[in-house]
Write a structure and sequence with these properties.
The complex is a heterodimer of chains A (115) and B (112). By secondary structure, chain A is an all-beta fold. Chain A is 0% helix and 51% strand. The chains are: A mainly beta (115), B mainly beta (112).
Chain lengths: 115, 112
């Protein structure tokens, strides 16, 4: 079973529209990260949220961490073709010994923004 | 500041051969993580190295192995390659004690 479920799997919208993608789990995470990945490249870290209820904004992107730290959402306002990519959420369940953390990734939401 | 680098960019092997993939972390990062990204399966955790030691491994057979060198660079070895090993292999690095991982561009491994 997938620890982190992302929805929708695929999303195709017109330039200028708003959208929200979700990342849900039955597990509690110490922190949750969002990445964007373009074809043939590695994921690029967009944001990390660590506090339940936390909201972070990155230009037209708004990230929210659920109060119970089990879910998160990413909202994009006025989407642009440059927003096209695979959006991945990744959660860490806390210190796993030896001084570092291990992330669990969702399968991602593939977003296409049509000009 | 240079990001995480990986080599080679592409690697084509035949079934049964061995593949070696390399990763150099961001300067100052001591932890290196390896992930496999196959079509439709998302990122699957493979291995985690820190301070030269293997700290954890994912649910992969022993023919997936690696090591971390004194300069914190890392190598992933895949023995007895199978067709289903074809994937993008991603390396990430982090500061010790940090949950933020930074990824390299990946190595595309194709097994024919």
């Amino acid at each position: 079973t997938q620890l982190l479920e992302q929805s929708p799997q695929f999303l195709s919208i017109q330039e200028g529209e708003n959208l929200t993608v979700y990342c849900n789990s039955s597990s509690v995470f110490s922190s949750l990260q969002w990445y964007r990945q373009e074809p043939g490249e590695g994921p690029v870290l967009l944001v990390t949220v660590v506090t339940g209820g936390e909201v972070k904004k990155l230009k037209r992107l708004t990230f929210q961490f659920g109060d119970a730290r089990k879910d998160s959402s990413l909202h994009i306002t006025a989407a642009q073709p440059g927003d096209t990519g695979l959006y991945l959420c990744a959660g860490d369940q806390g210190y796993s010994g030896a001084g570092s953390y291990q992330l669990t990734f969702g399968k991602g939401t593939k977003l296409s923004v049509i000009p | 500041e240079a990001g995480v680098t990986q080599s080679p960019t592409h690697l084509i092997k035949t079934r049964g051969q061995q593949a070696t993939l390399r990763c150099s972390p961001i300067s100052g990062h001591t932890s290196v993580y390896w992930y496999q990204q196959a079509l439709g399966l998302g990122l699957q955790f493979l291995l985690w190295y820190d301070e030269g030691e293997e700290r954890n491994r994912g649910n992969f057979p022993p023919r997936f192995s690696g090591r971390q060198f004194p300069n914190y660079s890392s190598e992933l070895n895949v023995n007895a390659l199978e067709l289903e090993d074809s994937a993008l292999y991603l390396c990430a690095s982090s500061l010790q004690g940090s949950y933020e991982q930074y990824f390299g561009p990946g190595t595309r491994l194709t097994v024919t």
